[in-house]
UniProtKB/TrEMBL annotation:
This is Phosphonate ABC transporter substrate-binding protein. InterPro entries: PhnD. One of its GO terms (biological process) is transmembrane transport. The keyword NADP does not apply.
């Protein structure tokens, strides 16, 4: 267990990083790449991609960092305080393997999390599926792991929920209805339905009214309460909500489900020293979730499995391209 003093340190770090998250993206200039970089792709001008793997190349050795304290953040969730305890066993393992102090940052928004890494104050982070490309291109995040099962499989689906008594039995029945999307950058909560549902005969905003709920949990709870007629949400989120008795699954039904998408990516900052990066990877890939609070919270997974942004986020980039998404700070907010 973390000591009281350490929990106070976590609070201080969270407060500091929350303030950092309010800064303008344009204020970050550290570790800027040479102006003569000829291969960036979608990356911000701070970064370069000479090897073509779609993530930022490591900076010169004299610009690489080896912090005494690693700051770790997990994607914005419905209850950040609960997740600080859930992640505790892994953070202790990360401390042991790296030999570093580790602080948990209870992030309040995707924008704040991305800016914290871009500013150099966040070193290891879990980014949600949709915001991951923003983190890669704006903050120099390098995805390397996902939660998976013993067989190495991973993923979640877009599930379109409605109340069992709504009278909505198929996608076409959404015409003229009020449907909750989560947030503009969310994959399963917004971008995926905009890209996939037209092929099912329904066009968001053209055939039904889109209302942003702010999060997956608010979308499903709004459906249960009757505030929304339906909502596309991430299967992994609603499964955890059922486990915690946050709603009665018998009150809702699924009228559409997509093929699997990658889950939350785990990333290191591109400018960390290679030796530290290897230790961080070692910590992730040697951690056994079974019997821990983390393993209990994320049912169906038992370990972290290796991934690459270029391969495993291809479908997400396609969905975002179909939606005309540009990786800019304004589009992240």
């Amino acid at each position: 267990m973390f000591s009281h003093a350490k929990k106070m340190d976590i609070l201080k770090v969270s407060t500091l990083l929350a303030a950092i998250g309010m800064m303008s993206f344009g204020s970050s200039t550290a570790f800027a790449q040479a102006d003569d970089c000829i291969a960036r792709g979608d990356l911000d001008q701070m970064y370069c991609d000479m090897d073509g793997d779609l993530v930022a190349d490591a900076p010169p050795a004299d610009q690489q960092v080896d912090p005494d304290t690693l700051v770790f953040a997990y994607t914005p969730v419905e209850d950040p305080a609960v997740y600080a305890d859930i992640w505790q066993p892994f953070l202790e393992h990360l401390e042991k393997v790296t030999g570093k102090d580790v602080h948990f940052f209870a992030v309040q928004s995707n924008s704040a999390e991305v800016e914290a890494m871009r500013s150099g104050r966040l070193h290891v982070a879990g980014f949600s599926t949709g915001p991951t490309p923003f983190a890669v291109n704006l903050a120099g995040a390098v995805p390397f792991a996902l939660m998976g099962g013993d067989d190495g499989r991973f993923g979640y689906t877009l599930q379109l929920y409605t109340r069992v008594d709504s009278g909505i039995d198929k996608i076409e029945d959404l015409k003229g209805k009020r449907v909750a999307h989560t947030s503009p950058t969310s994959n399963s909560g917004n971008l995926a339905p905009r890209a996939l549902l037209p092929g099912q005969g329904i066009v968001p905003e053209q055939d039904y009214e889109v209302v942003y709920s702010g999060s997956h949990d608010q979308s499903i709870l709004g459906v249960v309460a009757g505030d929304y007629d339906a909502a596309p949400v991430a299967s992994e989120v609603v499964e955890r909500m059922v486990q915690r008795d946050l709603y009665d699954p018998n009150e809702v039904k699924i009228i559409y489900e997509s093929k699997p998408f990658p889950t939350t990516s785990f990333n290191y900052a591109y400018n960390l020293k290679p030796e530290l990066i290897e230790k961080i990877k070692e910590a992730f890939f040697t951690f056994d979730m079974k019997g821990t609070a983390l393993g209990e919270e994320f049912k169906g997974v038992s370990k972290f499995v290796p991934v690459t942004y270029q391969k495993d986020w291809d479908v997400i980039r396609e969905i975002q391209a179909a939606n005309g998404v540009k990786y800019t700070p304004d589009n992240l907010k």
